[in-house]
Amino acid sequence: MKKTLPFLFLALFVGTLVLIFIFLASSKKMIVVQEGNFAQIPLEMSAGIYQDSDCGMVIDDLRDASQIIAKDGKSWFFHDHGGFIRWLEDKNLENSIKIWVMSRDTKRWIDAKDAFYSLTDDTPMGYGFGAYEHSSNGLVTFDIMRLRMLRGETLRNPLIRKKLLNKEN
């Protein structure tokens, strides 16, 4: 009995945590997918209401938020631009979607393919891709950002992080 007692307490503790998370998720009514956006325009978002479609985290800050909107009116939400690149990889949506990103410099929704991206911004998932409406030194295009994300060339990669951050100093 003495040997199983710690395991019983651990199981009870984990079970309690799971129940708390389930209760909080159901009581908050988080939005993961929203339907009816046939115009494919960016939806107004509020922090703390939307859930990232890639990682499941709550979108608490809209600074690096993005939206993918399909022709059928479904909208998916993300809190890091690298996340929507990852999420899209196994979907067959490329020709039927509109991607909107929040611009850090103008603080408005812009077409993701027209945006310019930093490689070293502090972003929620640590990929480093902040979006900007206006080009400036060191920013890259959507295609380069996408390629770097798919190759794992993000700030989450210690070698890339060291290379990018040492270059700036």
Topology:
Elements: H1 5-28, E1 33-34, E2 66-70, E3 75-78, H2 81-88, E4 97-102, E5 109-111, E6 116-117, E7 131-132, E8 140-141, H3 142-151, H4 158-168
Antiparallel strand pairs: 1-3, 2-3, 2-4, 4-5, 6-7, 6-8
Q: Could you characterize what this model shows?
A:
- By secondary structure, the protein is α+β, with helices and mostly antiparallel strands.
- The chain has one domain (33-168).
- 31% of the residues lie in helices and 15% in strands.
- It contains four helices and eight strands.
- It has helices at residues 5-28, 81-88, 142-151, 158-168; strands at residues 33-34, 66-70, 75-78, 97-102, 109-111, 116-117, 131-132, 140-141.
- The longest helix is centred in the N-terminal third of the chain and has 24 residues, at 5-28.
- The radius of gyration is 19 Å and the shape is globular.
- The N and C termini lie far apart (59 Å).
- The model has no long low-confidence stretch (mean pLDDT 90).
Which features does this protein show?
169 residues; alpha+beta; five-stranded antiparallel sheet; three-stranded antiparallel sheet; 4 helices
Extended strand count: 8
Q: How many domain regions? A: 1
State the order of secondary-structure elements, H for helix, E for strand: HEEEHEEEEEHH
Number of continuous helical runs? 4
Strand content: 15-25%
Rg over CA atoms = 19 Å
Terminus-to-terminus distance: 59 Å
Largest sheet descriptor:
5 strands, antiparallel
Strand order of the largest sheet: 1-3-2-4-5
Indicate the low-confidence ranges by residue numbers.
Answer: none
Q: Report the average pLDDT across residues.
A: 90
Oligomer classification: single chain
- SS class: alpha+beta
What percent of the residues sit in helical stretches (DSSP H or I)?
Answer: 25-40%
In one word, what is the shape? globular
